[in-house]
Amino acid sequence: MLIRKTGSLLILLTLVFAAQALGRQYQADTAPAQEKQGIRWPEGKRGAISLSFDDARPSQVDNGVPLLDRYHVRATFFVSPDRLKERVDAWKRAIAAGHEIGNHSLVHPCSGNFPWARQKALENYTLDQMRTELTEANRQVQALLGVTPTSFAYPCGQSYVGRGVNLRSYIPLVAEMFKTGRGWLGESPNDPSFCDMAQLIGVPTDDMEFSQLKSTIDQAMQNGQWLVLAGHDIAPSGPRQVTRMKMLEELCQYASDPKNGIWIDTIGNVASYVVKHRPALVELREVNPKIIQDLRYATPNNFLKTAVYTDNRCRLLPSMADKLSQAEQGLEKEGLGLKVYDCYRPPSVQKKMWALVPDERYVANPNAGGSNHNRGAAVDLTLVDSQGNELEMPTGFDAFTPDASHYNQGGSPEKRAHRMLLRKVMEEVGLEAMPTEWWHYQLPNAKTLPIVD
Question: What is the pTM of this model?
Answer without folding.
Answer: 0.66
